[in-house]
Amino acid sequence: MLHLAGITYFIGDRCLFSGLNLQANKGDRIGLIGPNGAGKTTLLRLISGKIQPEEGSVTFESNASVGYLEQEVLEISLDRTVLEVALTAFQEASDIERKLEAIYAALEQTTDYESDAYMKLLEDMQRLQDRYAVLEGDSKEARAGAVLEGLGFTTEQLHQPLSRFSGGWRMRVLLGKLLLEHPDVLLLDEPTNHLDIDSIAWLEQYLQNYDGAVILVSHDRYFMDRMINQIADLRSRRVYMYPGNYERYVELRAEQMDLQARAYDSQQKQIADTERFIERFRAKATKARQVQSRVKSLEKMELVDAPEADAAEVSFRFPEPPRSGRVVLTMENLRKTYPAPAPGESPVTVFTSGQALHIEAGEKIALIGANGTGKSTLARIMDGIEPFEGSRKLGHNVILSYFAQHLADVLSSDRSVLEVMEEAAPTSEARSGIRNLLGCFLFRGDDVFKPIRVLSGGERSRVALARTLLTPANVLVLDEPTNHLDLASKNVLVQALRDFKGTLIVVSHDRHFLQGFATKIWRVGSGKVTEYDGGYDYYEWKSTRDHEQATVQATSAKSGIAGSANPVAAQQKPQSDATDASSAGSPNLKEKRKLDAKKRTEIQKVLKPLQNKAAKLEREVSGREEEKSMLEVRLADPEFYAGPDAAEVIKRHGRLQQEIETFTMEWMETLEELEKQEQQLQQEYEI
């Protein structure tokens, strides 16, 4: 499907690739790895045809298509909606729709049904309709919606313009469009960078069933371990292939390095012994033949390359933090609402439950959840920089340090990397470890003397993170600390966090990273925080089991309460019979009232869930009817239609009408079921 042969490529006077070969077949899931600067992104650009090699060839099977997701957002019309951009993936189907519309219009104008022109229109229509059916054009909107919702968009967001979304969400739209195009060779450069945990899991599943070849660059080890079946290791200007996922690659690479080291050491010993023999007996005529033989053997020897040293093992430790009290942070009555993002829209409520949160010393908590659910908001609330309804209290002797990506923007642009680090180091011990710490975050050699103003956004973020870690805090709140880190740097950070003696709260979508240190998971969503007292593996197991149980319960609930199988009736009926028998037909009035009250209490327990559901549905209908009435006041004003948001308001009005009808129908069905259950239970309890 794809074949690279003898690729040589230079950047300036630096040779990036020399004689590089690579092959990808249908069904291959190839993870392209290598140190920063090895040329991973450049290789993807060569395959996509965006740049050309100096030597060698990139060839595809006949008619094979290639799709490439770059790290940066390309130029794209921000006025188009999310769905409209995604639907451009179906260009051929859209072209056919336009052609068919033109044919239908021409057919309506035709009066001579026997003419050649009329027959030609019918033939073209049939051909286009057949092709449209092959392309499944009728389902393109449904398919686009399914992919976009898998990547985290809500149904309402599909109809919003791209201008309302951040760069990360725009990247999701481009990824969705690329997946819908379904190229034979799919090239993905850091596809998980802008996805949350739920969307990454969806993408894994999608790519596992992808019938083309996939080549991806990713620093998300968990993603690669679950998705890929080959590793392409880019080093020394070539690609070395390994079967299996990243975990298997680590094992094979270690075995290979060990074997190569042994072979190299053995050969070096042989060379040294031979050279000593030659030097010792060079002057002796009796040994001349043996000396010459050994000289020739050295000349003919194929030298074993010394094993290429992996990046030097680096590590760092956090400054020893001062001890804090047992409770480091408490929050009470947690509620948070943001103002409406645009006129005519509702405020955005992040936390609604008013719950209390409690963090104890030494806990290492991972904050996870879908994008937009409030993880970063909660991190800022913990730091004390985000206002909210409720209270926040730090424990005794707590020193809290907070990292977020935006902190990179406030670094002094005229100072060097080393200087901004030195000014943040509070102790001589911290200053002595700065160079080692910067090495962990990919600033090595003369890189530390670069001024901040010449650094990329990712490099600035790494400097900001390194500065945060210099502070001897006993509580660290880190928001997406692994962005822009390679696998080696992530491993260094994981080890440091694991050894950290203080308390950690970390927002991250990197599951392998979280597995390395987290001892507790907080899932943020639905206006609250759900706590899991275990690491990420436990969270996956528990959340999967809870989902399965909820599905079983929902299925059971649909069957209703079976009359004779009602556990309350089964328990109470014998008691009622016994009471009647012992009372000889005329029980004491006070006892009878007490018994009836008890029966009603038991009935109410059974009916309460249906009553709550009916009340909730009634509120849903009422709220939407109120909003719909407000919109109708605006729609009644002729001047309103000249405004910029008229189209959105009209769409919202239509959606509200549909939702009102849906909720009203469900409400009525619930009321009927409630009445039916009430009559049945009253008969069973003989009230």
Explain this structure:
The protein is an alpha/beta fold and 687 residues long. Among the domains are: 251-300; 327-545, 3-Layer(aba) Sandwich (Rossmann fold), CATH 3.40.50.300; 567-685. It is 48% helix and 17% strand. It is built from 21 helices and 18 strands. The protein has helices spanning 40-48, 82-87, 91-109, 116-134, 140-150, 167-181, 197-208, 221-227, 246-281, 288-300, 375-383, 417-424, 428-432, 434-440, 457-468, 487-499, 511-515, 536-558, 567-583, 589-635, 646-685, and strands at residues 2-11, 14-24, 29-33, 55-60, 66-69, 185-189, 213-217, 230-235, 238-243, 327-338, 348-360, 364-368, 389-394, 400-403, 475-479, 503-507, 520-525, 528-532. The strands form four sheets. It has a six-stranded mixed β-sheet with strand order 5-6-7-3-8-9, sandwiched between helices. It is globular. The model is unreliable at 561-587 (pLDDT under 50).
Task: Give a quick rundown of the structure.
With 687 residues, the chain is of the alpha/beta class.
Poorly predicted regions? 561-587
Strand order of the largest sheet: 5-6-7-3-8-9
Tell me the distance between the termini: 76 Å
CATH C-level category of one domain: Alpha Beta
**Looking at this structure, what is the CATH superfamily of one domain?**
P-loop containing nucleotide triphosphate hydrolases
Bulk shape: globular
| CATH fold annotation of one domain | Rossmann fold
Helices, by number, come to 21
Report the CATH architecture of one domain. 3-Layer(aba) Sandwich
Beta-strand proportion = 15-25%
Helix content: 40-55%
Count the strands? 18
Supply Rg. Answer: 34 Å
Mean pLDDT: 82
Structural class: alpha/beta
